[in-house]
Design brief:
The protein has a single domain, classed as Growth Hormone, Chain: A (Up-down Bundle). It has 8 helices and no strands. It has 247 residues and is mainly alpha-helical. This is YoaK family protein. Keywords: Membrane, Transmembrane, Transmembrane helix. It comes from Streptomyces massasporeus. InterPro entries: DUF1275.
Length: 247
């Protein structure tokens, strides 16, 4: 494997990890949209549309926040792409490194929100620094999962996964999971996990994290990302276990 992270040693582990990250992306956007002045920090498409509305002068949509989010997202993706490629070229565990970088940026954003605004939301004060840090973290995430390349699980959007799932069901309307090949079963599971993960993350963020306030919510998300990175480094590697001799 190109990644030294042991948590990605099997297809099942990859799907599980990407599902958790997808849920967290939904939670990030719930927190950012509902407590940071109606801006998406993970869903870049939403910010592109907000920016277009704002530049057109319609819908009372601000220009600065989506523009900052887009710029920071691009910067995070670019920096992570370079650094992760450098680590991979030297056989270093680039996947946990990407997760740690994402978590550190979220911790900085949460700490900044707490220092400036306490335990409440920040939409009224329009704190662009917090928006930039969270979007930067999501840009790092985008490059990290792109390098993992789990088909159907980009973790930051669900439209393609929903379309793939619908088309697959239409092609095989009577096929249940048990009647499919392992490859078909895994693909349908990934698409379902992506669509359901974004939705579940939005619900989780809205009901559990948004009431905590921006700062504390971001710190909780960062803690989960760090835990995932730690589990990845500590997980046993099946790929490195000796293979028993054939009878």
């Amino acid at each position: 494997m190109s990644d030294a992270s042991r948590i990605l040693a099997t297809d099942a582990r990859r799907a599980a990890v990407m599902t958790v990250l997808t849920v967290l992306a939904g939670a990030v956007d719930a927190v950012s949209f509902l407590t940071m002045g109606k801006v998406f920090c993970a869903l870049a498409t939403g910010n592109v549309l907000f920016l277009s509305f704002g530049l057109a002068g319609e819908g009372d949509v601000p220009v600065a926040r989506p523009a900052i989010a887009i710029g920071a997202f691009m910067a995070g993706a670019a920096c992570a792409g370079v650094v992760l490629a450098w680590l991979a070229g030297r056989g270093r565990p680039w996947f946990p490194a990407g997760l740690v970088c994402e978590a550190v940026l979220l911790v900085c954003a949460g700490a900044l929100a707490l220092v400036r605004h306490g335990t409440g939301a920040i939409s009224a004060q329009d704190d662009r620094g917090v928006v930039a840090l969270v979007a930067l973290a999501m840009g790092v995430r985008a490059s990290t999962v792109l390098r993992v390349h789990v088909p159907g699980m980009p973790t930051l959007l669900s439209q393609t996964a929903i379309a793939e799932l619908i088309n697959d069901v239409l092609r095989r309307p009577r096929a249940a999971l048990r009647g499919m090949t392992a490859k078909q079963r895994l693909a349908r599971t990934r698409w379902t996990a992506t669509a359901g993960g974004i939705f579940s993350g939005g619900v989780l963020g809205t009901l559990l994290l948004v009431p905590l306030g921006t700062g504390r919510a971001l710190l909780v998300i960062a803690a989960v990302v760090l835990l995932l990175a730690a589990v990845g480094m500590a997980a046993p590697s099946r790929a490195k276990e000796p293979v028993p001799d054939s009878p």
